[in-house]
């Protein structure tokens, strides 16, 4: 943080500390503690305070995404397909985005956007050697490690070309929703052509505010709206994919709040919905559900053209 933090802030990046030996911010930087890392903006004074915080000794540097900052995470270990993906990006996306490498050949590309974009995930495939292959677009509510020691390689993350220390956030090449969706489509078609099995379907969460694909706008925080019936909630869940972890947790919190307000038990519905995703097995779902006691989201509004009373 002492080497890179202030320069990154001056270049327009919202930096956050990363716990040494991990890829995550410290646990005390959470919504629960009123100091969420996802709310951090470019702030020199805050970076200087962190430098004197003994809890952050040896911390790495992460960068908050969102606020018109977006990253493409090519999470693939097959070097040939990584090369194909980078070629596709070179020919179909603008500019020359900074590239960050942690565990090669995986690579992350950094862009800016004209409007906020939320996370998208391609389908997750299993390659010929049984390894995960996926491309994710990371935006609102996400972060990535920029400068630290990678927990697996035990070596520093690398920026082979230009990096955020040299390129201001405002000067990054722009990317659009349509371009990221095109990359997702290309990747999924390419994996299918290779005969790779699908382990988990993709997420439709890449949206700008007001986009018709915005599943999370169904989870509303306003308390002046009428409490929906169980039948209405069940109908809504048929349209909400459980594969994106942020959506899965938000729905769990919404149902927890609904149960507390209505006096009805709804854990069984959450478990059945979660089982649409292989990650959320019967043992984990109840624990995650019960852990969302501080959430205030209510599943209060649904799209009328898809869910009818």
Automatic annotation (TrEMBL):
InterPro entries: DNA_primase/pol_bifunc_N, PriCT_2. It comes from the Bacteria. GO terms for molecular function: hydrolase activity, acting on acid anhydrides. Residues 5-176 form the DNA primase/polymerase bifunctional N-terminal domain. Pfam families: PriCT_2, Prim-Pol. This is DNA primase/polymerase bifunctional N-terminal domain-containing protein.
